[in-house]
Amino acid sequence: MDFNWKESYGGAVVRGNEDIKNGYNYNLDLRYEVFPASGDMLSLSAYYKHLKSPIERIQDYSGSVIQSFDNVDKGTVAGAELEVRKYLTKDFRVDFNASYIYTHISLPEGGIYTDKKRELQGASPYLINLDVNYSPKFSKERDASLSLVYNLRGPRISSVGINGVNNVIEEAFNSLDFIVGYSLTSKMKLKFQAKNLINQKQKFTQEVADTGKDETVEYYKKGLGFGVGFSMNF
What we know:
Layout: E1 4-6, E2 13-15, E3 24-34, E4 41-52, E5 55-61, E6 65-71, E7 74-87, E8 92-106, E9 117-118, E10 126-134, E11 144-153, E12 156-161, E13 168-170, E14 173-183, E15 188-195, E16 201-207, E17 214-221, E18 225-232
Parallel strand pairs: 2-6, 5-12
Antiparallel strand pairs: 1-2, 3-4, 4-7, 5-6, 7-8, 8-9, 8-10, 10-11, 11-14, 12-13, 13-16, 14-15, 15-18, 16-17
C-alpha cells in the first residue's frame, strides 16, 4: 500500500511505490597506486557500471507537486578518480580527491518521461574533496588532530520530470567543516566539530516548459552545526 509524506515543512509530497523492483549493477574497476614515501600516496582509478532497473525519484503534478520512485530499464555509469595524500611535514598532511562521473539513461519512445535521454537521477558529474590535517603529538598518550575538510558536489537531477514536466536540478553545493580531536589519555578523548561553515543556500531549479527559463522551485539553508563530545574506552 502506498502512502504520502513530506520530508520537510513546505516541501513536495512524496509518495511510495509498492510496485518498485530491486535494482542491480554489474561493475568493472581498475586501480593503480603509487606510494612514493612513507604515508604518501597517489592513486588513479577508473570504473564502469551497467545498471539494470535502477531506482530513481520522479516528479509529477496532480493538483500539487508529487514526488515518487520508479525503475528505469537500464543505465550506464563510468568515471575516473584521482586521489593524493601528501605529508608536508611529519604532522601536517593534505588529502585531495577528485572524481569525474559520466552517467547515461536511455528512455523508450512514447513513455511517461519528458526526456528521451539524460543523466542518472542523483548523480553529480564531478566531486572534489580536500582535507588539510595537522596532528601534533605532545607525549606518549596526549595528541591532537585538527582538520579542515572542504567538499564540492556538482549539480545533479533531484527528481525526474514526467508527462511533460521538466527535471528538478539540485544546484552545485560547497561545504566546509572544522574538526578537532584531543586525547587527554590513551583512553579519554575530546572532540569538537563545526559543520557547514560556508552555510551556502541549497537551491533547486526547474526549467518552465512555456518560457524555457530556469526558475527556483525550492531553497533552504542547512545552517551551521556545532558539537562537543567526550569518549572513553574501557
